[in-house]
Specification:
Distance between the termini: 19 Å
Largest sheet: 7 strands, mixed
Strand content: 15-25%
Number of domains: 1
Oligomer: single chain
Order of helices and strands: EHHHEHHHEHEEHEE
Shape: globular
CATH class: Alpha Beta
Radius of gyration: 18 Å
CATH architecture: 3-Layer(aba) Sandwich
């Protein structure tokens, strides 16, 4: 069992950017539709924005405000699928025997987003990019809790997924729409996360990170998530 506080959060999905909008979503069960809408990253200079993919824009949109005014802030970035559209474009170029773009390749690797984050914020703290399976959210929290245990006063956790290209959608079923969630974790005992074995309650059809956010906004004190033989239990002190 690990303990921690969540001092701030921020989320993005098509049509939902403000806390008030997410509060309404948590109460109404609004369904998301696939959309090409891009997050607002106008806080970055235009030349820097040009390098950001849709996935990177989501991560920056939720993470940048949480990091505002903080220096030496470790970052844990979690994405199960990563830069799938960039990778698909590279594979398409290979199949068509077209020249490959070194820039496109360098920005397709899983730690590209934290590399861009480090450059644009001149940040040299510990940064980790995780590609976990269906419980990547919890794996990211474990990594962040380890950094808190090592003495970090706060850790930024970002979970982001982009809807895959159409060619992959028969195999990638856990990203029905693009979304990102950012959490600022600090030491404390406001939250506990524990791991058990065996089957648990059925998981909701929406992405787990957003199911967790719905639980938070509706003031539930307990949330569970099962992936294969692992059942995670979140508990929140009211």
């Amino acid at each position: 069992m690990i303990t921690f506080n969540i001092s701030q959060w921020r989320a993005w999905a098509p049509g939902l950017q403000t806390t008030a909008a997410w509060q309404r979503w948590s109460q109404t069960g609004q369904a998301f539709e696939p959309s090409d809408q891009a997050p607002d990253v106008s806080f970055l200079p235009a030349m820097q924005r040009r390098r950001l993919s849709h996935l990177a824009r989501m991560a920056f949109a939720v993470g940048w405000p949480l990091a505002d005014g903080r220096q030496d802030l470790p970052l844990v970035f979690v994405s199960r699928h990563g830069e799938t559209p960039r990778t698909f474009d590279i594979l398409s170029d290979l199949a068509n025997q077209e020249p490959l773009s070194p820039t496109q390749f360098s920005l397709s690797v899983h730690n590209a987003i934290i590399g861009l984050w480090s450059i644009m914020r001149a940040e040299t703290s510990e940064m980790t990019a995780l590609a976990a399976a269906g419980d990547g959210f919890e794996q990211g929290v474990l990594e962040a809790a380890g950094l808190l245990h090592d003495g970090a006063p706060a850790v930024l956790l970002i979970i982001a997924e982009e809807q895959p290209p159409a060619a992959y959608r028969d195999w990638v079923e856990d990203v029905p729409f693009a979304y990102a969630l950012g959490l600022l974790l600090t030491p404390g005992d406001q939250w506990t996360l524990s791991l058990g074995e065996g089957p648990g309650p059925a998981t909701a059809g929406e992405p787990h990170a957003l199911s967790w956010l719905r639980s938070l906004l509706t003031e539930h004190t307990t949330c569970t998530h099962t992936w294969k033989s692992r059942t995670w239990t979140w508990q929140h002190k009211p």
